[in-house]
Amino acid sequence: MIAIETIRNMIVIFIRLGVYEMNEVANRIKKIRTWNMVALVLTAIGAVVSLVTLPSSLFPKRENFEVLGKKGMELYNQVSSTSYKVAIIFGVVMTVLFVVLYFIASRQLSQDKVPSKLIYFASLGYFVLNLVIGTFLKGASSANELTSQLGSIGVVVTVVSMIAPLLLYIPQIMCLVHIFAIEKIEEKA
User: Fold this and answer.
1) In the Cβ-directed half-sphere of 14, how many Cα atoms lie within 13 Å?
2) Other Cβ atoms closer than 10 A to 156
3) Residue partners of 158: CB distance under 8 A and separation at least 6
């Protein structure tokens, strides 16, 4: 009699643990859905802004740079270069691609499926690559000389331009945190 009662109690405990883990996974999927939607909206806004500003980025007006003198004309030559235009187009394509990937992840999440971590790692990797390349290019550009003439304002602009975009990647980081948590729960089961 005691053995049967013990077995029954163990079964109840296992069922409760299973229900807890299922609820925990469902809660995590809900959180991923929310953070993915935030990432989707922020990236979509970025894509729209990129598409709207694409013509002025690809074809800058010379007169806007002439008022800055010699340094302004050097900067104009840089932003008019083919490599700069290729980088701008590549950035727009990547932004639109991430919007599509977040939308696909959103559809998977609506079916209670966990999306691939690759989407979020690729997004963070692209951000880091952009930051590194941008830092090296900025160091070599005449725009850097122009900002250095402004003194401390240039430092503030540089710091803000590095930190502010990082805040926009919090949703991707949170999605990864919850995906890893789900994997950990599933490993225990």
Assistant:
1) 7
2) 12
3) 138, 147
Domain of 73 in residue numbering reads as 2-188
Distances (CA, A) of 118 to 81, 98, 122, 173: 33, 11, 6, 12
| pTM exceeds 0.85 | no
Q: How far is CA 37 from the centre of its chain?
A: 12
CA distance linking residue 35 with residue 119, whole number of Å = 13
How far apart, in Å, do the first and last CA atoms of the chain sit? 29
The CA-based dihedral angle spanning residues 99, 104, 110, 111, taken in that order and rounded to the nearest 10 degrees: -170
Q: Are 166 and 123 in contact, with CB atoms under 8 Å apart?
A: no
Backbone angles phi, psi at 31, to 5 degrees: -65, -40
Residue type, 60: P
Please compute, for residue 137, the number of CA atoms within 13 A of its CA located in the half-sphere on the CB side. Answer: 12
- Residues 28 and 179: their CA atoms lie apart, in Å, by 8
Report which DSSP code applies to 141.
S
pLDDT in tens, 57-84: 888 888 887 887 888 788 888 888 888 8
> Which of 18-32, 123-137, 164-178 has maximum average pLDDT?
164-178
CA 33 to chain CA centroid, Å, is: 15
Domain count within the chain: 1
Q: Which residue in this structure is represented by tokens 């840089």?
A: 78
